[in-house]
Amino acid sequence: MPIIVLFTDNPTADPGLRAAHMRDHLAFLQDHAGMISAAGPLTTEAGAGDGGLWVIEAEDFATAEALVRADPFWSTGLRHSHRVLHWRRVFHSNQGPD
User: For an engineered disulfide with 39, which of 4, 33, 54, 66 has Cβ 3.0 to 4.6 Å away?
Assistant: First the structure.
């Protein structure tokens, strides 16, 4: 099932943590490319960091949750919270309605 994961960053986290763990985080995303079709940071209109988003394909919410918790960023304290949401795609510009 298609799932969206929305991450909220921890505003009190050491900014150096992201850079220190980015290589492992990107390798994790690549290693799980069969499930994670897109991932990236979210920013405000002013360009300030405001969390992140994953688009994944998982059997169920428990599988998605396990994937989130396996990410090297999870244990660093960079994430304040996250939401796992089922996504029902009704339109895709290359494929039309689902």
Answer: 54
